[in-house]
Write a structure and sequence with these properties.
It contains twelve helices and 16 strands. The protein has helices spanning 31-44, 61-74, 95-104, 132-141, 161-176, 190-198, 209-213, 217-220, 237-247, 265-268, 283-293, 300-312, and strands spanning 3-4, 15-19, 23-26, 47-50, 82-88, 107-112, 145-147, 182-184, 203-207, 254-256, 320-324, 328-329, 334-336, 339-341, 349-350, 353-354. It is an alpha/beta fold and 356 residues long. 48% of the residues are buried. Helix 3 (95-104) packs parallel to helix 4 (132-141). It starts with a strand and ends with a strand. Helix content is 34%, strand content 17%. The structure holds (4S)-2,6-dioxohexahydropyrimidine-4-carboxylic acid and zinc ion (ZN). Zinc ion (ZN) binds at residues 25, 27, 51, 259, 261.
Length: 356
């Protein structure tokens, strides 16, 4: 942390200056939705890893190239912002596609969605064995695999899906590909924290702001809150505490990935509501609040701005941002194509304000 008075001065005017963060897990959608939401991230982050679960998904480097152009046109106002593209892994992704991806210089990872695990995962992987030649190529060329770590059996309790994924899939995957770089995405449990902590340096994890700030009571007590529904679903308080311990531990394996996943108001407030929270409009402010709650602001910069770049083998950003401990009220909604989006904390306050 380059400049802060938070340790000596806990007043309302405290500021915190840190290296500009990156978002290592972001959903930007496409079309009008993309135009509406991409600038929120470009305003605060140097780079973002862009999820490929569009409909149809981004499965080739060619598609990733076109999608990147659309993102760059949506973020023209912030020309320094770099969208780092990913490919959507299917049962049929050919190993040669990995060569193309590396050659392009614009694809930074491949995303594994177990088929049926989440939004637009129908084309995802049904059997990891089918992907072994492609994973072999990724291991050889150093292209990271980003994992949505949940099993999908109908008879597995939704709160246990991450833990069982570790036991039934991830342990074997890391044994079969000991030098494949893997990011266990948006981890939500103490089990995942332990797994990542005890694994080799090839294994890291992203953690969202919403999983640091909320537990499952925030979704289910006093009425169902559809805007607090995401996947992996919010867990019990002991798991939230384990995530907080992980991000404030100084362990370089954990880094920021918002999983900001916008859906229209109509698709969230629905008898079969979509999974995802929209947090990109205040990503770093929400993380600052989570770290501040446990008096650990000194650990924020490493988590938000250093660890991810280190894992991906990229330089850290050269710009800085400044946050102020000053409350502001979140708009009740933002425009999103021909509908609205309800942001996290809609109409409520956030304790930190991004100044520049
Ligand atoms: O809550 C989520 N929303 N989790 C995911 O894994 C996907 C995402 C989305 O794309 O909506
Ligand atoms: Zn996601």
């Amino acid at each position: 942390m380059s400049q802060t008075d938070h340790l000596s001065n806990n007043t309302a005017s405290s500021t915190l200056t840190i290296i500009q963060p990156d978002d290592w897990h972001l959903h930007l959608r496409d079309g009008d939705g993309l135009m509406a939401i991409a600038p929120f991230t470009a305003r605060q982050c140097g780079r973002a890893i862009i999820m490929p679960n569009l409909s149809p998904p981004i499965t080739t480097t060619l598609q990733a190239n076109d999608y990147q152009k659309r993102i760059l046109s949506a973020t023209q106002q912030y020309p320094k912002f770099k969208p780092l593209m990913t490919l959507y892994l299917t049962d049929n992704t050919p190993p040669d596609e990995i060569d193309q991806a590396i050659k392009s210089g614009l694809v930074f990872a491949v995303k594994l969605y177990p088929a049926g695990a989440t939004t637009n995962s129908e084309a995802g992987v049904t059997d990891l064995k089918k992907c072994y030649p492609t994973l072999e190529r990724m291991q050889k060329l150093g292209l990271p695999l980003l994992v949505h770590g949940e099993v999908t059996h109908a008879n597995t309790d939704i709160f246990d899906r991450e833990k069982i994924f570790i036991e039934q899939r991830l342990i074997k995957l890391t044994q079969d590909f000991p030098e494949l770089k893997i990011v266990f995405e948006h981890i939500t449990t103490a089990d995942a924290v332990d797994f990542v902590t005890e694994s080799s340096s090839f294994i890291a994890a992203t953690i969202t702001a919403h999983h640091l700030l909320m537990n499952r009571n925030d979704m289910l007590v006093g009425g169902i809150k559809p805007h607090h529904y995401c996947l992996p679903v919010l867990k019990r308080e002991t798991h939230r505490e384990a995530l907080i311990t992980a991000v404030t531990s100084g362990n370089k394996k954990f880094f920021m990935g918002t999983d900001s996943a916008p859906h229209s108001q109509k698709n969230k407030e629905n008898s079969c509501g979509c999974a995802g929270m929209f947090t990109a409009f205040a990503a770093i402010e929400l993380y600052a609040e989570a770290f501040d709650q446990v008096d650990s602001l000194e650990s924020l910069e490493q988590f938000s701005s250093l660890n991810g770049a280190l894992f991906y083998g990229l330089k850290v950003n050269s710009d800085k941002i400044t946050l102020q401990r000053k409350k502001w009220t979140v708009p009740t909604s933002y425009p999103f194509g021909d509908d609205n989006i309800i942001p996290l904390r809609s109409g409520q306050t956030i304790n930190w304000t991004l100044l520049s």
